[in-house]
Amino acid sequence: MRGLVLRWLVVTFAIVCASYLIEGIRVSGFFSALFAAATLGVLNVFLRPLILILTLPINVLTFGLFTFVINALMLKMASSVIPGFHVEGFWAAVFGALVISVVGWVLSAFIDDRESGGIIDLKKKDGNRWG
């Protein structure tokens, strides 16, 4: 549970960083960024896998670069739902999604994945048995 809250705060901080770095992204306060991070999380869990599957041929043809467009779409969708969080235009959404991804990736490197259940550590014991 602690890992989930930490990741939520990391994405919140990444959204605030994006609002400072990208001119077309505005966040009115911390709670708007917090709700935007929660909305992005929900969209990424439920809608993003479906969109990735539907756009797989285009994603393969562009060597995965179309994923930036999908991330920008998720960011625009979140901004349309959350008051106090606004993304102006396509390129602001693309660069904002890039900043959020990079900042989130860097900060997530400092979070221990063992708390969130992300790593299963198996060691070989007694011949062919793993445990």
Instruction: Note the run of SSEs as H and E.
Output: HEHHHHEHEE
Shape: globular
Portion in helices: 55-70%
Strand fraction: 5-15%
Number of strands: 4
Contiguous runs where pLDDT drops below 50 for at least 5 residues: none
Radius of gyration: 17 Å
| Class from secondary-structure proportions | mainly alpha
Structural notes for this entry:
There is one protein chain. The protein has about 130 residues and is mainly α. It has one domain (about 1-110). It contains six helices and four strands; from the N terminus they run H-E-H-H-H-H-E-H-E-E. Strands 1-2 form a two-stranded antiparallel ribbon. It has a two-stranded antiparallel ribbon with strand order 3-4. Strand 3 and strand 4 form a beta hairpin. Helix 1 packs across helix 2 (about 30-45), helix 1 (about 1-20) crosses helix 6 and helix 5 crosses helix 6 (about 90-110). About 25% of the residues are buried.
What's the short version?
It comes from Syntrophobacter fumaroxidans (strain DSM 10017 / MPOB). The chain is mainly alpha-helical and 131 residues long. The protein is built from 6 helices and 4 strands.
Secondary structure: elements and pairs:
Layout: H1 2-21, E1 25-27, H2 30-46, H3 48-54, H4 56-61, H5 66-81, E2 85-87, H6 90-108, E3 124-125, E4 129-130
